[in-house]
Specification:
With 260 residues, this protein is α/β, with parallel strands linked by helices. It has 9 helices and 7 strands. The relative contact order is 0.14.
Length: 260
């Protein structure tokens, strides 16, 4: 009987957390990032995401997703985006920073000089601005929040040559550099906020050999479950666990104790 009530409490907590969580999804504009955004909305969460144009913003209301445009090259636009997300959601419980290297590799295939500035804004500067402005907002409010960094990996030229994977067309230099910048931002963020008990961090990586690599819906489902696990934790995570990259599809490494 005791075990039954413990299990029931965990299930009840899972339902409550999912039904109340508000999620900000950044990194892959709708409709391209719709599969992951839908995974969150289907789990009972209210989602605020980025769309390519204002005329597309209302196209996702049926999926219970609020969308808006964002100028990645502007700190002002980034702050406006966060304020709009807070207004629409009421509060932000979860933030997902998604770097889809596979997607970016097809979008920025060549290292053209005339595309460098736009590439940097889209794949590096935007994340910098968003992380910086988000942290300022979090520090002001000090409400509990989970910040997750999801990387869908794709190999660089160096990695392809090292692995002797001739069948794979490697990512361009700018995409590979941006990927490393994202990894660095994620790891440094997790370390810098480790002393703040109102911020939890999840680092997750989906390598090209992962069984669910090609299925973003399953990637999204896993991320939802992992965030719920962290939300249900009784104790704050350690620096080690916050800075550990979790394999998408596996049991999330938290170091947490769940509610008893």
């Amino acid at each position: 009987i005791s075990h039954f009530f413990k299990l029931w409490n965990v299930i009840l907590l899972y339902v409550i957390i999912n039904s109340m969580a508000n999620t900000l999804f950044i990194g892959k504009d709708l409709p391209d990032g719709l599969e992951i955004a839908e995974a969150f909305s289907n789990s009972g969460r209210k989602v605020f995401a980025i769309c390519k144009s204002e005329k597309d913003a209302t196209n996702f209301e049926a999926e219970k997703i609020v969308a808006s445009t964002w100028n990645r090259a502007s700190a002002v636009s980034t702050l406006s985006l966060l304020i709009k997300a807070e207004t629409e959601l009421g509060n932000i419980d979860e933030v997902v920073f998604y770097f889809d290297a596979n997607y970016f590799a097809s979008r920025f295939e060549l290292d053209k000089t005339e595309e460098i500035a736009n590439s940097v804004d889209y794949m590096i500067s935007g994340y910098f601005y968003a992380i910086d402005e988000l942290l300022k907002r979090i520090e002001q409010k000090k409400d509990k929040i989970i910040v997750s960094f999801l990387l869908r990996d794709y190999p660089s030229k160096f990695e392809v040559c090292s692995a002797k994977s001739a069948a794979i067309v490697p990512a361009s230099n700018i995409v590979s550099a941006a990927k490393q910048a994202f990894i660095s931002m994620a790891e440094n963020f997790s370390t810098n906020v480790s002393d703040k008990d109102y911020i939890s961090v999840l680092l997750a990586k989906c390598s090209i050999g992962n069984d669910i690599y090609k299925n973003e819906k399953l990637i999204g489902d896993w991320l939802c479950e992992s965030l719920t696990t962290i939300s249900a934790a009784k104790n704050h995570q350690s620096v080690k666990n916050a800075g550990t990259w979790n394999k998408v599809g596996s049991k999330v490494s938290t170091g947490f104790m769940l509610f008893k």
